[in-house]
Queue: 2 jobs
Job 1
Amino acid sequence: MNRYLKLVNFEFNRFVKIYVVLLAITLITQIIGVILKSREYVANANEAIYQEQLSTSEFLSQYGTMSFDTIVRSVWFLGPIALCAGAVAFYIFLIWYRDWFGKNTFIYRLLMLPTARLNVFLAKGTTILLVTLGFIGFQLIILPIETTILKWIVPKDFRVDMGVHEIIGAIPELHLIFPQSFIEFVLSYGAGMMVVFVLFTAILLERSFRWKGILMGVAYGVVALFIMLSPLLVQDFVVDGYFYISEMVLLEVLVGCIVIALSIWFSNYLLKRKIRV
Amino acid sequence: MIEVKELIKKFGRKKVLDGVSFTANKGEITCLIGINGVGKTTILNAIMALTPIHGGEILIDGKAIHKDSYEKITFIPDAITMLPQMRIADAMEFMADFYESWNQERATEMLRFFKLKETERISSLSKGNTAKVNLLLGLALDVDYVLMDEPFSGIDMFSREQIADVFTSHLIEDRGVIITTHEIHDIEHLIDKAILLDNGTVLKAFNTEDLRESEGKSVTDVMREVYQG
């Protein structure tokens, strides 16, 4: 346990520089977005009211009010989120491969630590989870700052204020990363960790068997997908809609747990018996 | 004692090791000798469970390797096993964090002996100094067995001499050492036991002292006989 926590700390610190840069990019880009979008709206309003002689209410009925919703849908806001999501996806692979490549082969050290090799696996998984949660937390912290900036720029009569909850609620696609309830949180992060563990297992297959391992990794991914789809297939083709939706959710959770357990068990086996430096 | 019994290792269909057996005792330096590609590094990797084997058995003090074994046996590969961005001090801290057998006093002593500075970054070290740090990270562990892969290859003369001095010091004494080399000259006088390898098998294994006394032959003489005869 102790060495597992040390490994988590160690792995996180290896990512921390890139992490800080990504957080800074997110903060700066989104704030620039808020400022530009708000000023654009105010400029439009000025032009309409002072040059085209529209009244405030005429302007509002033609152009609508300004709200944070407009900003959330812009590339200024979603761009950095996509960048961070992409960085996490990329790091799922890099977190392993960086130990094998380069002239300093750190994987020797990791595999020779006097601790179960599974701890290395779990520490890398935990790091991915922490990094993701950190991004989400950071986004939730900077949202109120951004809405405040909007309030500074756009006068009260021209805007509709939104709370953090409403802002996230405005874009359904974001529900996956900003869960609206605890159950949603457990489901989407559980599913996320399952995907990470399946990918880790595929990576370890490649690292153990190299070229053949790529095929085995893909095959493992297909098997995991099939297990995940099995309740749906049974529902549609075998029992013909026998289960309630809530029961289906439960079944999916169950098979999800099976896939996670299978991945951890298989990775443990690979790390102990098949891995190559 | 490290016992390697009938070790078989294949890369694809090619058998790299075909029934290799030998033992290495505590308090002795055992040297695996053979040309490049003969499987010396693979044997060390196999002992440390860093590569799967396809037959045979490896025992350390009578037991197969398990997680706690890494407090008793260590491996110094030919490349340094620390992150390049670390300073020497960070690397030592990492070792102290993870290994109960880490001996900081000994590490400090070796730093002084090798004239290395704690504040230096691993990525900025010369080849010779990198090898010294690598050696330090392994030898400062209070382990019974040390495996070293080609510790002298590609290093300048003075570094080689310094490293050779380590072999005759208390840093090595009482431990079991397995060392590989394709070039015997630097360490001929240091080794207790020689294992000559070729084509995945042990051609000859002998105690260097015994052979010197009974037949008056050096390791180089025996190598000439075995490889060229």
Job 2
Amino acid sequence: MSDMNTAMVEKYRNSFLSEVEANVEEGEWVKMCMQCGVCSGSCPFGPYWDHPPQELFMMIRAGKREAVLSSESMWMCTSCYNCIARCPRGLPITHIMHGLAHYAKRLGLAPKNQQTMKFASIFWDNLTKKGRVNELQLGLKLYFMNGFVEGIKTALCMKEMGMSMLMTKRMSPMEYFGGHSIKDTKGLHAILKKAREIEEAKAKQF
Amino acid sequence: MSDVIATNQTILVVGGGISGMTAALEAAECGKQVILLEKSPALGGRVSQLYRYFPKLCHPTCGLEINNRRIKGNKNLRIITMSEVASISGDAGNYSVKVKVSPRYITENCTACGECGKVVETEFDDDFNYGLGKRKGAYLQHAMAYPQRYVLDPAIIGTDDASKAREACKYDAIDLDMQEEEIDITVGAIIWATGWQPYDANKIQAYGYDRIDNVITSVEFERLCDPHGPTGGKILRPSDGAEAKNVAMIQCAGSRDINHLKHCSRICCMASLKHANYVNEKYGEEGQATIYYIDIRAIDRIDDFYRKVKELPNVTFTKSKVASVVENKENGNPVLHGVDTEGYHRYANEHDLVVLAIGMEPSVPADAFPVDVKFNEEGFIEADESNGAIFAAGCSSDALDVNRAVQNATASALRAIQVVNNVAGSEG
């Protein structure tokens, strides 16, 4: 567990709701939930969640910190916005889900090997390197995300599609070596470095 | 039409539903001159379209009959049906009101014998039954209609049907040359009682009212259960006319929702409890009613009714706002999808019929109001001094049940009486 996590436990003690309100994006909305359940029922991925949004909100209020932050649930959100469109109280549920996932990751409580998280990390690293997404590298990374054997299997599976993309010039094999980039990668890196500094300074205040 | 004599000591009541009738009668019985305007051909409003009242489950016809008797016995009350307010000007104690009166094509000679209705052939969607049935081009709005006079649908004027109706009338009561009239009246105070209308269920997209036959609203269900309704009191579902024994009620259909009506409509929970009771009465053990709710808002003495319904073995309560309704194409059954709050169980429940406990919105929207008054966020009229002597009664002031609407109407009658008393004092 991270230092930040220890600090947070110390600071908020029994009030997980206050902790969420103060630290999770859009977290101040959680208390507005009236437990009608329309979000859970509207979620296309609903059947695959351990705890649908409505239940997560109740768990937050009940102070189930560990169970919420180490849950796979909020990582299942695909940002379809069905819940936001239908919520009778206008809770930005999608954003809260992402906020919870992000907070859990920062505290080091997110489940190990969480697939969505892994993909997000791979995508971020890929994007920030050159300022442009390198689709070939990203695709290959994803194939081999869960080990060599599975990577080969997936690659064989997708062989025909890859070949078609090559033939129609939708994908260049040369991208694997370096790949295209934005004009000022240095500038981008400087921006990102500064953003990280600001973010870390903020986290230290907790 | 005989002349309407009104002075600034007269009270004008707009809307002849239960609130308007109450306000008009209370004022008239206190000796004030009252004019009551009603848009439709008969008094009674939405109450006359109900099968039963909650919580005592008595029939609204009973209350209407009492009010009709009070009206007949009162010389101070003048009723103008088929009329609407066109404009209002002036101040408290002295308003000039233009009233538009639509032609009824039938004079006071009418005895409601019904001969014209027999010979007329053209049929129209019956508004009184929310379009669930048909009515003739010459019709009496409902059995209890006051005044007991037929009315011709303007669409048949100039057709064979109209002349057939005139020939059939033994009392020379049909006047096909009747025209729209505009009358000016002066009044001291105005009681606004135009009431409510059901929220447009088509706007609640996820519940499929616009595309699934067997999804209906609570006001329509009320007509289905009424022996005078389009099905003679049988709960027949619209898609195939089969008896619906397994009925679901969805609460807060349009109410308590920032996407629709923000307010709680107050009547829907009780209406659904009453509907569950209808199903139980009709079918006994064979019937099944399921109420999907966020929380049941039965307060005060009506809580007893909630408890009684809860004890019925064939009524179940599911704490969940239904997420969506889809149709089972094979049998036309609506399938309800959602997650319940007591245990977070995901369900996909099939029912014969779904009744949306539809919310209540003011029937006259704020932007269509003939004069400047204060409205609240939900479009109901606020009690505010700047409104002068225009007082809202019943559901024009808030979402209310009949009991509270009548109380509210009596209060507004008292306010109007004070205004005309002041006028009398200053002139006296």
